[in-house]
Amino acid sequence: MERKAPTCLDDILNGGAFDSLGLLADVQPAKPKTAPAQSKVRSAFQEIVDFRTKNGRAPELKASNLSEKMLAARLMSYRNNPVNAAQVKDLDCYGLLNVERVKVTETTDATSSVGSLDDILNSSNPLLDDVDPSILKIQHVSKQSAEDRVWPDEIASRKPCEDFYNFEKLFQDTQRDIINRKIEVTRFKSEKQVEVGDFFILSGLICFVDSIIEDTKETSARENPRLRVIFENGIETNILKRSLARALYKDPNGRRIVPDAEAVTRKLQGLSHKDKATGCIYILASETKAPALVNLKLQGRLVKIGYSSQAVEERIKNAENDPTYLEAPVKILASLDCYNLNPQKVEHLIHAFLAKQRLNMTLISSKGVAYKPTEWFMVDRDTAIAVAEHIVAGDIMNYRMDNTTGRIKRVR
Questions:
Q1: Residue ranges of the chain with per-residue pLDDT less than 50
Q2: How many whole angstroms from its chain centre is CA 120?
Q3: What is the pTM of this model?
Q4: 60, 206, 368, 393: least CB-packed within 10 angstroms?
């Protein structure tokens, strides 16, 4: 008998003339497996059916048993979900699903106003119906306000340093001396190295121990005082001495900035950083050749008055390229050291006192840009120095400018 060759996969699977050896005679089609998700839905519902068979009733939300409450909540979800209900309909031999579907709007309204734990406890949620109310009552615990609470001494607060102008020059000088290798930076080793007036490097920032905040007679507190520490980014903190030392020691880059010979000498003389000038008021004359300023320059009535927290020589190093200095070399007429003066207030006093003498002129820079030199005034050197001296002395309010003579005059 001539064998027929199969022409497709169906010819092989159907056997018959194409399976002369009977290899596929006993092969049965595999039963489709239940999808994992569907089997979970069915097995979860079967637990509800088993509860009904064992107890003769459906699980209830008001039950005291947590497992029964969970089954009751699960049954409610089946009743509200037509897709899941359809998958388990053949298992529902007790008609558990034949209950009017719970309206979603009712549950939504009940939960939409929940905004705190009190809202949950005061709600009509059946899960809380049988909770013993005594567990929610706090007894034998006194109320304590935030003010009465005792916080650990280790906790330090951080805030912007309002008088940072008193420390800005100290940081600038220290940074310059580190770059120029005038002072040494070493690894921090011990809390004995932490003293008022010392500089350190913590978390990549230079910090300065300004003062002891709390002065107490207790020996333990004197050994571990709370310090006022200023950081170069303008932030200050009140931290315990040992806490600062611990932070410096744990920081792999924690460093102590060794004071130079001058600083050591000042400390031996009883002088602190508060006895050191924090800046200066400077008076400059311009060597400008601008035609509009020639007459004022010849009369000696063209000066710049300002405040600087750094050396004036450093400030004017690039004057000939800076419109602030009229794009010309300048000459230092005078410089007066200032102690604990706010630079913004100093400049405000200068500008307010000499408002009528301010140079009100628009100039064109070498780049063709128009600008107004706001810190230049039409007064002579002696008048400018007198104004600066009275600002430093703090009695400038007792004087006024005579706009006729262009001189400073005492108020009677």
A1: 34-35, 101-112, 146, 149-151
A2: 35
A3: 0.48
A4: 368
